[in-house]
Write a structure and sequence with these properties.
Layout: E1 19-20, E2 25-29, E3 34-38, E4 49-53, E5 56-60, E6 66-67
Antiparallel strand pairs: 1-6, 2-5, 3-4
């Protein structure tokens, strides 16, 4: 988890929001998708559940692309 020092906190009166041209914000996959079958949890109903996770990172590559 990353917290930006430039965004306001989550106080009661605060409404932190970012807007701008998000084409300057890159998302990067940090590994493949992990998929796990959940046989035991749904065995009573005769079905199999699945849970998937993916790790993603992001970075603003041009500061002029967004405002706060």
């Amino acid at each position: 988890m990353y917290t930006s020092l430039y965004m306001p906190g989550m106080e009661a009166e605060s409404k932190p929001i970012a807007f701008g041209d998000f084409s300057f914000y890159w998302l990067i996959e940090r590994g493949g998708i992990a998929l796990k079958a959940l046989h035991e949890k749904y065995a009573v109903n005769g079905v199999t559940g699945f849970i998937g996770t993916e790790f993603i990172d992001g970075r603003l590559v041009k500061r002029e692309g967004s405002k706060r």
